[in-house]
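Lab notebook page, bench 4
Experiment: in silico fold of construct C2
Operator: M.H.
Input chain length: 512 residues
Purpose: comparison with the prior construct
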Amino acid sequence: MPLTVRLAGYNVDADLLTQVIDLLGQIDREIAGRISSLEPSDCRVLLAELVEKAHAGMNLEAFTPETIAAAYARISRDPKQIGELRRAARFAVARARKSNDTIIFGYGHASVAEHACFNLDILGLSRLATEELQSHRLVSFTEKSQRYITLSADFVIPPELTADSHWEKRLGEAVPRSFAAYEEACRHLTDMYRGQQSGVPSSHALQEIENRAKEDARYLLPLCCATQMGMTVNARNLEHITCDLSDHPLQELRDLGKALRETGAGLAPSLVKYTSRGSYPRQNRAQLKRIFTAGATEETQIISRPSVRLLASTPDAEERVLRALAFTSGMDGNSLSDESSRSQMWKEVFRNISSHDGPMREFELADLTFETELSASCFAQIKRHRMMTLLKQPYSVSASAILPRSFEEAGISALFRTSLDQSRQLAQALESQYPDLAPYLLTNAHVRKVILHINVRELYHFARLRCDGHAQWEVRDLADQMLEIARREWPNLTAMAVGADRFAERYREMFG
């Protein structure tokens, strides 16, 4: 499927929706009362009457999220009640748009645009492009899972190659081989897991077996694999994203930015306006890349797990957090006297906490910075934690790759290596002619290096989800390593940082 951005929904003034529902009810009752006595020729007259009533009863132009933004923008300066402000905006949309333009772009109060929200269907986007889109914060995404859905050979040929018949043909022949290897791996892994079952597995067990097989077989899928997602974004962030994508090196992402701009600006022109930018920071990054990568080399290896090392941590973090807790309790830090009282304080910090609770905001004063090497498959999960600071290196065609242990257990590691070598060789050939496009042909197994900067409060959320037994094995391994390092640094701060499935046991250990 070609790249498609489709408006799925947006917020409309609730009073307007109530008015529509009431009007539809009136029309329905009127039709029911009169239709039996009407001749066919009279139906047209009735329809015209009903349409006229609909137009007279409401301003159809008001079906835009701009009116809510305009009304809320007036709250700080207009003494009228909010309901009156919203009604005025609904019946004067042109004036509302002009007000938005003045307040948001003239005065610089861009947060007003956050009151308008859009739901967008995005289809036919590559996994590679998805990483860039989902790097934007304060946006909600729900994406098609490669863990639970069996994928067919649906992939994106970079738009830059559609005019190059040689490469378009070559990719059209080569990429399906990666999908064929994926399908073969699914079969072998499914057979292995079924053989480990005693008796006839239930339908639920069979589904779990298939999911486990797909979970590891997907390491063979290329980053040009197509996906789809639902996206919810406010107008301010939609404008920011379209601006950021406007000068992206990949045509696919520039096309995505254009489609997002047309969708948002078409519906709310007063909120999505400045959607392109100058040379900063893209040209600066390109120059830095030329400086820093001069003479850089990388050794290709097959490895079995992600790696984590600590780069930095907040000095005296436990002391800092305790003093902050004392401060927000109305005290000063001098009350932190002896070790026994501190121990009791830490215990009281966690008393009554549940597996659904995050720790207190004071925990944000403690930070950790990790350097990690993880597969593209694992990064696809890490990127969803957008409150971390994620600094990623570009993909490299000579990068190492992570081999799931299940491939060796099933006796298909040769399939993995052969498929990976084919992908890498094709990527290297493409890189010589189109350097920016080579990552499309790398796989989910290929490693990228990422710096993760995270505060301890966010680490708790990360651990609940990613240290849980239901988490995918590589991201669980990564999270366990991060948590082990954090515990060595700060045993008190991280006392209740565990996966959701171990929370009850850990709470009993602490409180009995």
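Observations: The chain has 19 helices and ten strands. Residues 468 and 499 are 4 Å apart (CA to CA).
Next step: discuss at group meeting.
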